[in-house]
Amino acid sequence: MTANRPIDVAGAEHLLEGFMANRKARTLQAYWADLNDFAGFVGQAPAQAIAQLLGGGGEAAARRVLEFAVDRRSQGFAAATVQRRLATLRALTRFALNQSVLEWSLEPPDNEQLEEAVRARSASTVPYLFPRHPGEIDRLDVQHYALRETLGVNHLAPIEPPRHALDVGCGTGQWAFELCHRYPDAMVVGLDLVPSKPGWPPGYRYVRANLLDGLPFAANLFDFVYQRLLVVALPVDAWPAAVAELVRVTRPGGWVELLEPIFGVQDAGPAVEQFNRLAYGIAAARGLDVGRVVYDSLDGYLRAAGLEDVVRQEVSLPIGDWGGRVGTFLATDMRVTQAQFSAVLQTQAGISEEECRTLVQRAQEECEQRRMSCSFAIAYGRKPD
């Protein structure tokens, strides 16, 4: 089994069985505690987590283990506990190497490297514009239903039934769940910083990672890579490298598809315009695109990353009951977005709670009275054989 070939769950279970064989009770207990903690970090069962770790290749495994260690140190785990976790993962990869399952072994970060990574993480923030909130699940699903209703499908790329598909910035996981139902033989991976909502279909796997740090997968792995609605999460300067990373993990002959909106709405009233101007200021301070650079560049990003047969399509979606089901969906999305973002305006834009409440009320009245809309661009392309 080569370093770049995915290791299946059955193979990982067999490997773990051999690794744990003939261990003393205390060692066995410690090893399982370490591996269960790592599995909990990635949101999978232990065998699934190990299959993913070992199947991605040495560099991807090192990145994932560093991310795991940084997360545990940032949560207050003692340095000795984290190093024990890492030692267990290193011992497992060396066992796999001795069993000819791998062609590499893991070298986890030492204490100095780990503390430096923890400091770097503390000094930076993920620039996602909207606050984490229970209602974010409903809001993202409403966006999904509006786009699916408009397009009639969940993707435009003319893919064959995939064996492996990846949804980058998967949010609730709804798009990926539906892909699993359409292609029941596929393994669909959802990648995000926050776990997907409950109810995972059998073919779904969640991976916790930040695209800005690189994807924790081997090259040429996925038949279809999908990404959408990350204009509020990726700094505008990061887009070319991010798209190149999507292409890197796509197999030759596979497809990459992107979908992004213009930041803002068309035919907005004065209250919506004021709300948006305040949001633009906060977004710009985080390096996000507050114009239409990303919107206009999606197909160019794909071509620059080496894709062929690139196609671009633009759609306009109504906001408000005048636009039927889609308009109602997006009106709901706007109301929830404005309500959630009010706390950000109060803390970062100097708006009082009363001013913010009045502004949101006026904006929602405009949503009912005006015919506003928003524009989305979709671009997809094929990686050369």
Give a brief outline of the structure.
It is built from 13 helices and 7 strands. With 385 residues, the protein is of the alpha/beta class.
CATH superfamily of the largest domain: Vaccinia Virus protein VP39
Whole-number mean pLDDT: 88
Low-confidence stretches are 131-137
Separation of the first and last Cα atoms: 24 Å
Question: How do the SSEs run, as a string of H and E?
Answer: HHHHHHHEHEEEHEHHEHHE
CATH architecture of the largest domain: 3-Layer(aba) Sandwich
Based on helices, strands and strand pairing, what is the structural class? alpha/beta
What share of residues are in beta strands? 15-25%
What can be said about the biggest beta sheet? 7 strands, mixed
Main CATH class of the largest domain: Alpha Beta
What spatial order of strands do you see in the largest sheet? 3-2-1-4-5-7-6
**Fold-level CATH name of the largest domain:** Rossmann fold
Rg over CA atoms: 22 Å
Q: Number of domains in the coordinates? A: 2
Number of helices: 13
Helical content band? 40-55%
The quaternary state of the protein chains shown equals single chain
Number of strands: 7
